[in-house]
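Usage example:
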Amino acid sequence: MRVGNLPGIRRLPIYLDILRKLSESGLETVSAHILAEEAGLLVSVVRKDIEMTGATGKTGVGFCIDALVSNIETFLGWDNPYYAFLAGVGNLGSALLGYEGFRNHGLHIVAAFDVNPEAIGRVVHEVEVLHLDTLCGLAQRLHVSTGIITVPSAQAQGVADLFVTAGITRIWSFAPKILRVPSNVTIQREDLAAGLAELLVRSARRSERRPLVL
Amino acid sequence: MRVGNLPGIRRLPIYLDILRKLSESGLETVSAHILAEEAGLLVSVVRKDIEMTGATGKTGVGFCIDALVSNIETFLGWDNPYYAFLAGVGNLGSALLGYEGFRNHGLHIVAAFDVNPEAIGRVVHEVEVLHLDTLCGLAQRLHVSTGIITVPSAQAQGVADLFVTAGITRIWSFAPKILRVPSNVTIQREDLAAGLAELLVRSARRSERRPLVL
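Running the assembly step on the lines above writes:
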């Protein structure tokens, strides 16, 4: 599946954070150089990422911060709020329910599901926990498009199947396991080990090169 | 910083999961085609990712599973166990302390830290929670190389500074905030919103193209 510059897409939320902070501090325009410095990236990378969203700057002035925020949000589809269900209210599920970032991104988790009798009926970060059996009917009534999987690996495929049956077409899975879904469903596997892999390799490359730099 | 194929590096843990499962089911060799199918990726992508680790297959036979696992682990540095501290034992921190995946990856979280009196002294997934004030001395005694930040954004820079003072050179931060560290420290920011951005853009691309396909 070709969707353009995936690493760039993953960086866009970083720019949004920086732009919001610059805007709060009273700035109205920003250069690609400042953005690059704040994000710890190369200017050429920042320019390419921003170009992807269709935003254009002016020579000597830079980008209008409000316009750039709105370009990035539209590109990511974060200007349209959408509803999500979360299945699995363990530690990770609870962490996602309380994650500071999502509210800025149009993501509204409207209900959480579990099968543990101790979890059902609780309210976690203002979201009610319901029994997994009630998921299908509710998804259709509430026009829920997105499902988040935070159950243990062994239950993840079952929950994915349930999401698909409920008509959910976007699945975001945190289970360290590959899940099968029909071709009309987009699944994003969030592997916490991926970040660890990246950190270790980047750090090793740096140590290897250090003697050459000194 | 150029470290080669970062998206490929992030995919390596997926191959490891698949290879371990195939090995458990009694297989000794695997083709790039099977790996690609299991991972839901293009064969050309899988070949390129594996090539990066230095592993070589045989025509008509494929890759020896044990050798490929060992190549990937060595490439990622996961064959050498290393020690980490985790700061911030809220929901996300607790989830990471219990994450099934890390034990396979050489990562040993040897202590967790917090400032909340209710958290200190608790044992979370077999890891003791200590007061943040004791971090510096312990890092040096235990040869801890890696620090994981799961505190709220507002405290994240303070914890990063503390890690740096303690001699930690690899920081894995889950705070939705850009942190400043000296140039000899590698920092990996794990932005949960990045995965959400990728999911939405991939799903939107697919919907746009659907009428052409039908």
